[in-house]
């Protein structure tokens, strides 16, 4: 495979010297895109990450990372720091809308059961941990993708600033309404190979209302002083909300 070099001001990628390694273009600097970038960085595979926003702004609630991710974090050399930044998750308590406990799921023997314990981190912390594993010149902000094009040798993306970038593999990590997927579907539809169900809009929507407090007083909220994370989920009564 012929190596595809980038066609603008971005500095060349430092590779292992193997010209046969494909260049990966990643659209989206969310957790998925950054995690892939971290893996490629550790694997010495050339890549670039393109994010439409002018800054990386992690949003969302706390993140639960179970033992299934431990091998990847260990291979990338961040597992020990991940553990020190997180809070161990030993149980999930499910409440009804009146605050009464419905049931609990016990993970106190997680390491024995699954090989590693589970931990909870806030999203900004896990973003920062993964983001720090990636050289800053690999992430390009303010890059809104307008179109994608591919042939038998390479793939090209065109951005709203008029610049084009070439690579060998294009990965869409830009969410449910992915520009990469939209363009790919258009090509497949033109070829007559797109299933009818994939032409329909998403069948449902989910709304997430997130609240985050300022730092709380441990004397007023003693659960904060406990070692394991206190994880509670409240189910609505006869309604679709939790």
UniProtKB/TrEMBL annotation:
Similarity comment: Belongs to the paxM FAD-dependent monooxygenase family.
Flavoprotein in keyword set: yes
Protein's UniProt name: FAD-binding domain-containing protein
Chain segments annotated as transmembrane: none
Alphabetical list of SUPFAM superfamilies matching this protein: FAD/NAD(P)-binding domain (SSF51905)
Keywords tagged on the record: FAD, Flavoprotein, Oxidoreductase
Pfam families: FAD_binding_3
């Amino acid at each position: 495979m012929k190596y595809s070099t980038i066609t603008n001001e971005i500095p060349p990628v430092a590779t292992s010297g193997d010209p046969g390694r494909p260049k990966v273009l990643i659209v989206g600097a969310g957790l998925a895109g950054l995690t892939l970038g971290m893996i490629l960085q550790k694997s010495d595979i050339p890549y670039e990450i393109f994010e439409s926003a002018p800054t990386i702004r992690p949003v969302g609630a706390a993140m639960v990372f179970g033992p299934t991710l431990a091998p990847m974090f260990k291979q990338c050399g961040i597992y020990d720091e991940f553990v020190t930044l997180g809070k161990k998750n030993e149980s999930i308590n499910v409440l009804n809308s009146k605050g009464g406990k419905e049931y609990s799921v016990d993970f106190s023997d997680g390491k024995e059961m699954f090989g590693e314990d589970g931990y909870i981190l806030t999203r900004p912390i896990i973003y920062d941990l993964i983001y720090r594993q990636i050289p800053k010149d690999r992430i390009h902000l303010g890059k809104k993708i307008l179109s994608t094009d591919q042939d038998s040798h390479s793939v090209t993306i065109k951005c709203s600033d008029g610049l084009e970038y070439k690579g060998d593999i294009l990965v869409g990590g830009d969410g449910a309404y992915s520009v990469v997927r939209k363009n790919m579907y258009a090509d497949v539809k033109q070829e007559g190979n797109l299933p009818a169900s994939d032409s329909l809009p998403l069948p449902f929507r989910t709304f997430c209302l997130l609240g985050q407090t300022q730092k709380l007083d441990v004397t007023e909220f003693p659960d904060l002083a406990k070692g394991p994370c206190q994880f509670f989920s409240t189910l609505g009564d006869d309604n679709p909300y939790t």
